[in-house]
Amino acid sequence: MFRPDLVAMRQHITGPIVTRFAPAPTGYLHLGHVVNAIYVWGVAAALGGTVILRVEDHDRVRSRPEYERALIEDLTWLGLLDYLPPATMVRQRERGALYDAALARLRAQGLVYACDCTRATYAGERYPGHCRHRGLAEGPGRGLRVRIEPGLEHADDALRGRLAQSPESQCGDLLVKDRNGHWTYQFAVTVDDLQQAITLVIRGEDLVLSTGRQVRLGRLLLDAGLTETDWPPLYLHHPLLYDEGGVKLSKSTGATGVRELRNAEIPPAVVLGRAAAAAGLLPAPSEIDAVALASLFTGQSTI
Fold first, then answer.
1. Pick the CATH number of 6-109+183-298 from 3.40.720.10, 3.40.190.10, 3.40.50.620, 2.40.160.40
2. Kind of pairing, strands 50-55 and 18-21?
3. What is the rounded CA–CA span in Å between residue 78 and residue 271?
4. Are 76 and 37 in contact (CB under 8 A)?
5. pLDDT single digits (tens) 197-247
6. What confidence category does residue 302 fall into, taking pLDDT thresholds of 50, 70 and 90?
């Protein structure tokens, strides 16, 4: 259940295998992030792919330089950056011109409109389109949304099979820039995946429901001539780690950080082994070096 079929993945992706590790520098890395890194680096190495390190710091309020420095230190300490060095490293805060250009293409298609709604304006996750026909001028205090019409979007998941989602019924018109002028996660990550020609997205299962809306947004950007690339990518949504109370490990709940384990002088092979076992990739915690991560997915087979 936790190991994807690598042969099927290789057959699905016709071109180069390019994936990304995309942490948000809003806190320190914990074991949940290590699990994601194990999947990213392990599967990429097993398939002969490359990894892009993307710092998703679109949230300019919570992102901190010290967190970015710490995540690089932690990844280096775990041995991942030496094992399979990232093909490149990008920061979303430096890609504003790229996002502006992408938005301009959607605006030229008549798909963008200003919105002054807050979450208090409507209930639930779906935006009901209050501002769609109001003709508000773009400006301070107003977000920007992209029109999402009815219809299903499909994508393939290496662990879950074929996904079918209706972004219009799930989220409605998609917010791409918030009222404070910040790019949203959904928009920035989709533009980045397109521009970086990502063919394999490896992330936690908590983001499964983001797939349809990102696939739709990517199609709109391709139709608007942003770039030419295969779309959508293949997805791999892996299981998350939970604490004893059944709560997902997260920075906000104070999950034990990698830096704390480092300070306790626990070897990186032990940390990787703990994370791999917690994710069901090992039968029990045992030491595993970064160079052996591919074996968690290949077993005795050769890809």
1. 3.40.50.620
2. parallel
3. 8
4. no
5. 999 999 999 999 999 999 999 999 999 999 989 999 999 999 998 765 555
6. very low
The reported pLDDT for the residue numbered 24 is 94
Helix (H, G, I), strand (E, B) or coil at 18: strand
User: What is the pLDDT averaged over residues 170-192?
Assistant: 96
Domain boundary assignment for the chain: 6-109+183-298
Residues 94, 219: contact at Cβ < 8 Å? no
- CA–CA dist 48, 69 (Å, integer): 28
Rounded Cα gap, residues 52 and 201, in angstroms: 11
Sheet holding 234-238, edge to edge: 161-165, 153-157, 234-238, 200-204
Instruction: Give pLDDT tens digits for 138-162.
Output: 999 999 999 999 999 999 999 999 9
Look at residue 301 in the predicted model and tell me its pLDDT.
37
Pairing label, strands 50-55, 88-91: parallel
**R_g of the chain computed on alpha carbons:** 20
Mean pLDDT of the chain: 92
With beta carbons less than 8 A apart as the criterion, state whether 145 and 175 touch.
Answer: yes
> Where is 260: in which H helix or E strand?
helix 258-263
Q: Give the Cα separation of 107 and 92 in Å (integer).
A: 21
Beta strands in the chain (DSSP E): 18-21, 50-55, 88-91, 112-115, 143-146, 153-157, 161-165, 174-177, 200-204, 234-238
